[in-house]
Design brief:
It is built from 5 helices and 2 strands. By secondary structure, the protein is mainly alpha-helical. It has one domain.
C-alpha cells in the first residue's frame, strides 16, 4: 500500500488552495470646498487590513489522507482497488525478472566451459526477456497511472470541496498544507492543525462504501 501511495505522490491534492477573506473598500471621498474635512484616503485600506487580520489560520497534512489506518477511507479504498487489480501484472513481471536473473547467472557461471553457441542462444533469450520486462513495466505504469487518476480524481475533488466547507464553518481563512512545504513552516501551536479533525469529519459524512470501483483495468 505504501508503494502505491509513493508512486502516485504526483496526484496529491491540487484542489487545496488557500482560502482568503475578501473585503470591499470604498474610494476616498472627493475633496470639496465644504468646511468638513475629507475622510483620510488610508481609511478603506485600514478597514481591509483589519478584515483580513480577523481570519483564522490553520495547517493540514494532506499526505495523511492516504494513510491506510487513519486516512480518508474512500481514498484508501480506491488505492486498495488499484492494488488488487494490478497484482497479477506485478506478479507476472516479477516472474519474468526471476527468469531473466536465473538465465544471466547461468551464462556467467558457465561462460568459461559451456559451448559458445549455447551461450549465445541463452544471451539472446536473456535480451528478449529484458525487452519484454521493460515493455510490460512501461505499459503497466501507464495503465496504473490512468486507473489511479480515474478512481481518485473525483474523490480528491470532493475532498477539496469538503475542506472548503469545513474551513468556512469554523471561520478559517487560510490553510497551509505542510506536506507541500517541508521545513518552511514552523508550528508553535499544534492546535491549529486540523488534519485529524477534518479526516474524522469527512469519514463520518463519506464512508468508504461510497468509494468508486468503476470497471476494472484490463490486464
Amino acid at each position: 500500500m505504501k508503494a502505491i501511495r509513493n508512486t502516485f505522490a504526483a496526484f496529491a491534492l491540487a484542489a487545496f488552495a488557500a482560502l482568503t477573506v475578501s473585503a470591499q473598500t470604498q474610494p476616498a471621498p472627493r475633496q470639496t470646498p465644504a468646511p468638513r474635512p475629507a475622510a483620510p484616503a488610508t481609511q478603506p485600506s485600514q478597514g481591509a487590513a483589519a478584515a483580513i487580520a480577523e481570519g483564522k489560520f490553520a495547517i493540514i497534512d494532506t499526505e495523511a489522507f492516504s494513510d491506510p489506518k487513519q486516512g480518508i477511507q474512500r481514498l484508501v479504498a480506491a488505492f486498495q482497488v488499484v492494488e488488487r487489480e494490478f497484482k497479477p501484472r506485478r506478479d507476472e513481471v516479477q516472474q519474468l525478472q526471476t527468469r531473466y536473473e536465473t538465465l544471466v547467472k547461468e551464462i556467467n557461471d558457465t561462460k568459461s566451459v559451456a559451448d559458445q553457441k549455447a551461450l549465445a542462444t541463452k544471451a539472446d533469450q536473456a535480451e528478449q526477456l529484458k525487452v519484454e520486462i521493460e515493455r510490460k513495466q512501461q505499459d503497466g505504469q501507464k495503465a496504473l497511472e490512468k486507473r489511479v487518476q480515474d478512481l481518485t480524481q473525483p474523490i480528491y475533488q470532493d475532498i477539496g470541496n469538503a475542506l472548503q466547507a469545513f474551513s468556512r464553518s469554523r471561520g478559517i481563512s487560510v490553510i497551509f498544507d505542510v506536506s507541500k512545504m517541508p521545513g518552511q513552516v514552523m508550528v508553535i501551536n499544534e492546535g491549529i492543525d486540523i488534519t485529524d479533525a477534518f479526516i474524522a469529519d469527512y469519514n463520518q459524512r463519506n464512508p468508504a462504501s461510497t468509494a468508486s470501483t468503476a470497471t476494472p483495468a484490463k490486464p
